[in-house]
Write a structure and sequence with these properties.
two-stranded antiparallel ribbon, 14 helices, 78% helix
Amino acid sequence: MTFVAVIPAGYMADRFMRKRVIAIALASWGVISAVNATVRSFWQFLTVRAVLGVGETVNSPAAQSMLADYYPATLRGRAYAYQRVAPILGYAVGLGVGGAVGSALGWRAAFLIVGVPGSVLALWVFRLREPSRGESDRDDAEGSGALIEQAAQRGLGPLLADLRVVARVPSLRALIVGTAISAGATNGFGFWAAAFYQRHTSLHGGKATSVVGLVILIGAAAGTIIGGRAADRAREHDAGAPMRLAGLTQFAAGIVLALTFLHQPLFVRIPAQLLGVAFVVAAFPALAAMTSQVVGPQIRGTAFALTGFLAALASAVSPLLIGAIADRFPIQVHGKPEGNLATAFICVSPLILIGALVVLNGRRHVEGDLAKAAAA
């Protein structure tokens, strides 16, 4: 469902009031979450969850476009970092609250409770000020810039035209690849990490799940915040420096994670994987900040939608690819054949390095693309 909704979400972000798009998505999220409490079968539950994913997808391009107009380029790394950390922390809090409510009142009540904050937040978003498009894009030399209204043309033709414009930006193509690689690496590791610890270490069951949860929570939160601040500091000296930073952190992540899948003691493997996760996600704020700069304000929603589409595709394919490779190298685990996840992770780690090189190579197009975006 994400693949179906994300491109239209970018279209809406470029043509309608973004705060309304976000508020409606949040309100819908709260209602759909509550509907989970009424399902009577697995397929009903799966359908409701798929629709819920659409609501989350619609929100993203509008929110990222709006952030770019609230904050100047010098602060966007931190802005996008805090935006990415919020769902991580929210997931942890929601899991804890939902588990407590579920234990006390049952799982149906848990879905009713966790849907309330989204509906309340929707009212707050409706009251936000809608920034003009390009409001924070200023010529540093002159201190002023033209404000750009939303696209006037509607329909499939203008949407395809926007996609073609976005696809022709060389540095953006590299940014899209980098975002997809980071998303795929994060999702692939998150999906299989618990099974990896159960098959290749002395940890089993709940202990393996707890270790993975801590590695991802701490690594992702710390890496995102540090990456956002580092991107803004790097940009003080060079407008394209965040892109170089993203490429370097991705390259480091590929090397560190590959080494952790070799035979290592737990006291080495766990902190090293935490560091690897931090390196992977540290690229996200820099990639988002650069995406907001290399395209004009009037098509940022489409740019973020296309980026999100390929990131969602990589996130979906990554666990399947890792699982398929693991099954080609079976090992015995407690007397049963299981896929060798260590070998699978080592095989796919070079993809992270290739993605990093694509980002670093795309850095050479930044100056020309920034000039074209300013002219637009």
